[in-house]
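<goal> How does this chain fold?
<body> The protein record starts here
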Amino acid sequence: QVQLVESGGGLGQAGGSLRLSCAASGSFSRVYGMGWYRQAPGKQHELVATISSGGNTNYLDSVKGRFAISRDNDKNTIYLQMNSLKSEDTAVYFCKADIEYVDLPRVRRSDSWGQGTQVTVSS
């Protein structure tokens, strides 16, 4: 069992900042890529930012230059620093992790998702 626990959401001001965290815990042997996704009311689920185990990052065009994803491999935790917030950043933000775990006699990989954390930006 793998749990991804997000924290740091809440109410932010337009132009302000928020920082999200996502920690993976449970029984697993390795964590590969991790990332943040979001879903706003009436809109499709979209990728916000991803980071590989080696630190390579990828961003949604609309957040480039404003958001920064980082990772602490020792803690199996990722962060999303969100600056210059806009009202259109309002959404539920979900953490995802590509997890390797032992399921004898095999080693398996699967995606795990967090429960989501609400980010609301007021203008």
About this structure: Residues 50 and 81 are 13 Å apart (CA to CA). The chain has no helices and eleven strands. The chain has a mean pLDDT of 96. The two ends are 40 Å apart (CA to CA).
